[in-house]
Fold each of these.
Amino acid sequence: MIQEPPREVRTVDEAAQNWAAHPRFATILMKQLLSAENGGPAAVSRVRVPVGESIGRHLHASQVETVYVLSGRSRLTLGENEVAFNSGHIVPIPAGTAHSLVNVGSEAVELLCFFTNDR
């Protein structure tokens, strides 16, 4: 059996990353933690949705998005289904599935979003 040489271990300190405006949703903030450009096998972002704001309906044609709610209360629309999506909840969103999210709580919604290629 041929073994690959060990890859360099790279860690990202989320606290050292700056919040930036989401490129498609102006009121949403995000921190890009990992991406294909920096060697990650998945793209990983921390996303903040302010009170009363929303991430509009969109889809990812070739990526599965897995979203974990770190804090807050929201409503997730996945295809034609709408569900409560609150702190501690997680959902995989299949590639090509339209989805949106609205903050319905009294504090910012914090999300951890993982993007992986659809296989």
Amino acid sequence: MATSETHNHDHDHGDSGHHVDPLWLYLAVFGALLVMTAVTVGASYIDFGAASVAVAVLIATVKAFLVAFFFMHLRHDKPFHSLVLVSGLLFLSFLFLFTLSDHGTRNDVDDMHGKPIVNPAPTASK
């Protein structure tokens, strides 16, 4: 039986090998996530106008990338798994895009009558 001192590491373990990252790397990523959380809180107090949602989504995307890349070990994983993640994020971005485009057209003008489209006022029930 081979011990760890006599084990020959000249052969390939493949992609399924377990990778152990140093503790300082996890602590650095954790610190970066804490800083990004503080940036998120700070950004919530600043009025970016129409770009407020974009700024919040950008910060959240960076934080999600850090979690997926380091804590979910995507940097050591097969490229196909990264492709699946990127495909899912692309699909999610389309959902956000369609939602924001719908939200942006809520006060359009009714072309038939030339009046702004407004929601009817609720009637008071007795």
Amino acid sequence: MLPRRSSRTLPRAQAVEWVESPPKVIWESGALSVRVNPELGIRVDGVDHYVKLYFKKAPLTKQRLAMALHLLETSTRGARPAGTQVAILDVRRGVLHVPSRPPRMAGVLLEAEANYFVDLWNLLGRRAA
């Protein structure tokens, strides 16, 4: 059974095949390094995709989905063969999400979140000492 597509995703797929496993990459922002590891490589209607699986019960919000797709897209850009897209498969809902237009300033928002996390981590570490 093929997954349903949400709005702004691929049209109904006619053919799905396995392709080469995607590489694991590191996204860095200042002192923070994040391992980005799409789990699947699939070809949907002749287009290769590196797919991250989403298993959580809570549905993905539009903002979270857009930021996760932007992170996947930018961090794997140099490691993906030309024409390979990224996607997130919401396993519980059977929906394959592909990037549309990222939110304005998506890169800046990711950097800000990373800086906030590092600052909070460092503050908690100082208080625990």
Amino acid sequence: MNPLLRVVIPLGVAVLAIGAFLLFWPQYNVYAQTKHGEAELARATQNRQVRVQEALAKYEAADYDAKTDVRRATGVAAANKIIADSLGGPEGYLRWRYIEMLQETSAQGGHQIIYIPTEAGLPLLEAGKRTNAPLPAPPEKK
């Protein structure tokens, strides 16, 4: 084989490979960018669907929490009505709650109970109201 052909054939193959690379590289970039865009779109769509499902789950949970709170409040109201009726009405119920509170605070220890004078069941808040005016001097003994 001719030594010149030994050099020309590999050189020709290299030139053809580089030419093919330069010819198809821009098309490959377009193809790669298209695939990258499709992947980003699919990822964004999936993320949006996940957020929608999470929002729906929160909405349903809030709805069930509200129904639970309404049912609990209905039960507490019924229990309070039964207790109030058995104690002679709202006045008796409030008196019973007051006595229960006194028992709880005395059981904890270290608490001081202050009794407030009342008139018709209402505390007398104006009794002994202090003023900032100085007290008159006591009369001098002669």
